[in-house]
Amino acid sequence: MARLKEKYEQEIAPKLKERFHITNPMAVPRLRKIVVNMGIGKALENKQRLETAVVDLTAIAGQKPVITKAKKSIAGFKLRAGNPIGVKVTVRRDRMYEFVDRLVNIALPRIRDFRGVSPDSFDGHGNYTIGISEQSVFPEVNVDKMEFVQGMDITFVISGNSNEQSRELLREFGMPFER
């Protein structure tokens, strides 16, 4: 079992239950899934970028990503509907907890001039999104073989119904919020 999952079940869930006066154990905020998305704008010019992003995201998430395609044609970007423009992966269960553990303890501290993640990036329903400017902060990505620097968005989908509950859940997981 993932170390963070065990910590959630034994320490974090009872703490949240007591702090927010929750009587129903199913109403305690929990992490449902994590979606990692890489939008590759240059994929139209260079197909190699898409393949490299698939390899990097597979190493980071531990499972194969899906190639996303454009929904609309946009003439200004020379984009047609159906063109591949990104990759995404949805991580659940034990892999999800292992991903959070690696993100919080290894990847985020490796970012240059890191002062914490924004505490205001919640969407009003309790979900949280952060952006990372390059994939090289993850130890799974081999920097020597890396051809392109690519950013990514990481969305935490949380079952809590408020931003405050979700923020407290992520804080208990060790998410370093700005002060």
Could you characterize the architecture of this molecule?
This protein is α+β, with helices and mostly antiparallel strands and 179 residues long. It has one domain: 50s Ribosomal Protein L5, Chain: A. Helices cover 32% and strands 18% of the residues. The protein has four helices and five strands; from the N terminus they run αβαββαββα. It has helices at 3-19, 47-61, 93-107, 163-173; strands spanning 31-39, 66-69, 84-91, 128-132, 152-158. The protein has a five-stranded antiparallel beta sheet. Helix 1 (3-19) crosses helix 4 (163-173). It is globular. It starts with a helix and ends in a 6-residue tail after the last helix.
Q: Summed up, what is this model?
A:
With 179 residues, this protein is α+β, with helices and mostly antiparallel strands. It has helices at 3-19, 47-61, 93-107, 163-173; strands at 31-39, 66-69, 84-91, 128-132, 152-158.
Which terms summarize this structure?
179 residues; alpha+beta; 4 helices; globular
Main sheet makeup: 5 strands, antiparallel
Number of strand elements: 5
Uncertain regions: pLDDT < 50 for 5+ in a row?
A: none
Q: N-to-C terminal Cα separation, in Å?
A: 32 Å
Q: What value does the average pLDDT take?
A: 85
Cα radius of gyration in angstroms: 18 Å
Secondary structure: helix percent = 25-40%
- CATH homologous superfamily placement: Ribosomal protein L5
Beta-strand residue fraction: 15-25%
User: What count of structural domains?
Assistant: 1
Structural class: alpha+beta
**CATH class assignment:** Alpha Beta
CATH topology: 50s Ribosomal Protein L5, Chain: A
Give the ordered list of helices and strands: HEHEEHEEH
Name given to the CATH architecture? 2-Layer Sandwich
Major sheet: arrangement of strands: 2-3-1-5-4
Shape: globular
Number of helices: 4
